[in-house]
Amino acid sequence: MEEIEAVKQRCKGVIKRIEKLPSSTKIPESCKKTLFKLANSELNYLSCLSSPIPVSSNIGHLESVVYILQQPFITGVSRVCKSIKNGFKSVHVDIICTLYKTPVWIIVSDRNPRYVSWDGSDKGKGLKLRVEEVLAAAVSSPSLKPCSVVLFFSNGVGEFVNDRLIGEYGAAEFNLSDFEFFEEVEDGWVNVLSRSFRDACMLEIKLNFHGSAASSSECGVKRSIGDVPGFTLQEKNKKVSLGGAFGSLLSQMKFCCEVELDNLLNEGNLINFDTTALIALVSGISNGCAEKILATPDIELRQRFKGNTQFVIAQALSEIQIPIDKELGGVIAGKKGIICESVLSEFKELVSMCGGPNEKLRADELLMCLM
Description:
There is one protein chain. The longest helix has 19 residues, at 29-47. Strands 1-2-3-6-10-7 form a 6-stranded mixed beta sheet, with helices on both faces. A two-stranded antiparallel ribbon has the order 4-5. Strands 8-9 form a two-stranded antiparallel sheet. The protein is built from 14 helices and 14 strands. 32% of the residues are buried. It is an alpha+beta fold.
């Protein structure tokens, strides 16, 4: 029971600190309500426990979020502890704010560093996959795009995971010297925080936006498509077997050989595709079906596309007015195409779930041309 009481006191302490967060200049009331709801929910859960069983609580995570919000250089908070929609997926982001006047997304981990897995296991996905999902959401977010994603490990992070974040995502360690480890109380006195964050580690992954795509090096691209499970690159200089405008368009691109990405980046003759561009290239609308869609009776279109009918019709009209092969032909001619792993994963999932047989075939052919 002593353990339960100790955790309940931590909950009450968090609630008091939430009350002191400056809503007028920093934290909107909606965000404070979210924090209060989470803290009170945790406290109610603990109050229902009557026997001395091992306590499983999320209060450590909430303490870490509030601790970050208390820092004077955190401003412009717009969301806390919310999910961001990205296609068919949602990713959890702990804080969306500005850090030293730069928009960032902050992800908090309160886990013991020994149990922060990089590649994951049968019990759950690893940190690598979560980072890729967050980066993909950050890249494609229409209104909440950050300049960087910040990872805050309140109990520190293991050397292996730290090296992987730096090596694969260009993460840079954030200097925590400006963080305050005390809080002001009345009459000029200060309280040293009951929980120490002196072992905390903060890493920043910068994003470089070109349209709606992040640069490949910052999304962790280190291998060719041929190395990705589920796709086999049979010949590095394979000629596209599909004819028509799609085959003609891809034939204008240079094929990527199996070389290190760093060497490719030095060439500068690259084009980085995002998910939207890939879908547009393989879509049936862009490959001869636009006129057929417009000639289809409205009732049939509504049965097939339901709430997306008007969008599909608009895409078909746009394709007839400005065909994508003509629009992109001059842009990709003579260049080597690259994509980051998060875009590859999202593209494969969309094609698998929504693509027809011909669209899947075009997707296979397109991926064979990219690195």
